[in-house]
Amino acid sequence: MASVEESLIFSIENFQGPLDLLLHLIRKEEMDIFDIPIIKLVDQYESYIQKMKDLNLTIASEYIYMLSILLNIKAKILIKGKKETKEEDPRTPLVKQIMEYEKIKKLADELKEIYTIWGGTYSREDKGEEILFIEDLNIYQIAEAFNNILKKLKLREKPPFISVKRPDIKEMMVSLLNFLPKNKKPFPFYDYLLTLKSSLEVITAFLSMLELIRLGSVKYLIKDGKDEIYLIYLKELPKDLIFEGYI
Amino acid sequence: MDLKEKVSILEALLLVSTKPLKINQVMEIFQDGDEKGWEEAFSFLEKHFNKEHNGLMIQRVAKGIRLTTKPQMEEYIKTFYQKNIKHNFSRAAFEVLAIIAYNQPITIPEINAIRGISSGGVIKTLLEKKMIKITGRKNVVGKPFLFSTTEEFLIRFGLNSLKDLPKVEEFNALEAE
Amino acid sequence: MDLKEKVSILEALLLVSTKPLKINQVMEIFQDGDEKGWEEAFSFLEKHFNKEHNGLMIQRVAKGIRLTTKPQMEEYIKTFYQKNIKHNFSRAAFEVLAIIAYNQPITIPEINAIRGISSGGVIKTLLEKKMIKITGRKNVVGKPFLFSTTEEFLIRFGLNSLKDLPKVEEFNALEAE
Lengths: 247, 177, 177
Known about the structure:
By secondary structure, chain A is mainly α. Chain A is built from nine helices and four strands. Chain B is α+β, with helices and mostly antiparallel strands.
């Protein structure tokens, strides 16, 4: 029995959503797409959903939504009975959607085939710096580039509806100083930035670093040609610290 | 500058250029206004490579030309590098790419409606792989982003332009009813 | 594997690899023990390329061979790169422009802190392209210059004001859709 279940899980997980499942049922049962036996289709669809429930699979909400659409169509058909009316066939919108999806599925297969051949042709590997052609660039790529930088820093901007407290330089100075090893070994400033959560914090951290340097609590050095900043712990902050000129 | 010289220059530029080489790019460098001559050199090179070489070829992609290995060489290159250097796209990715390629520019809600399921994760992968890009916003509630395919898409799929995409089979039967 | 096939494989590998290709490397990968055959393919390719092409050549270096452009092509290639860079953006320049756009006004040390590497050269390029300008000095140690984007930046990217910059959160939201 296990193997039957396994193959069922496999096939369910392979469906690209409810439309794909419907298409599969229609093709498997060789139904006429222009005159779908809707009651049979709904029954089969329902039993698939039931099997997914029995196997404790997480069912995407889209599958449940589709079930409600199917049940709605079924109800309309049953009420209408066999009598001829001028109203639109309740199945039509869904049929159109399924056919549109089938078309995309075929095109996706063709694209895959093309990619299998041409995706494997190579030119000389990129050795110099990558050049971005100006015609290809728009403001969204600028936003994307900045987003990628933030992601690289493992920073996540807080959702806009939560009011973000402006990071406090004094607090940040204390936290940065505590972060540095007390054995006076050079410590990469970048590693400290990785602990922060927003670009505002990064900038505040930078100002804090400058202030710590000014006060003589840390020394900085930049490794040859690397331009990475290293900090060395020197001494604790003076107790009677007065801040000037910030914020 | 005669044909032979033009051909030599083109093949040198083709080797070093990481993107398809376009005639207007070349024309801009040499300022000789001889578009016909350069086009001739492009064609000569195309024929020459395809006749004289079995491992290499000239491809016309993204409205430019590119010097590449032949598709049959993929296995050997993989063996040489001892790893798969080609990105493997999922079935969902090919579906979303097909929807965007044939309906661009298009928003995520519209893509989701065609597939009947959400496609956010796939969009992210396609953006990261530079197969698609955001090209604007749709003037509807929420101003969603509009997505289009990129030049990188054309290159990776060996297409000269979107016109070279496989033709869509029309289903007119339903409308005819 | 006959001579023709060996030659095809070699030329494909020579195209993709920037490092010289060595016979023992190739032998190790294809495990056919046919050193004589590969040596023959190397020689064939060398003669064939140098006879058939005037812009490219096969060069023998340190017990290996590599595919490269002829020395006479050097000048054309340099011009090609310069033109490309002049009209377009390097990835680094684009990254810095993005940082300035979203965090203006901002100093070079702050930009360096965000990128983790130095950005001085790129700033110069962006100033030349008139995408950014100096708008003051920051009141901290060393009084570094503050940089902001220009009017031309807005025009080039089709914005009415900086308020029209897409929100970064919208990109993170893409995954959820």
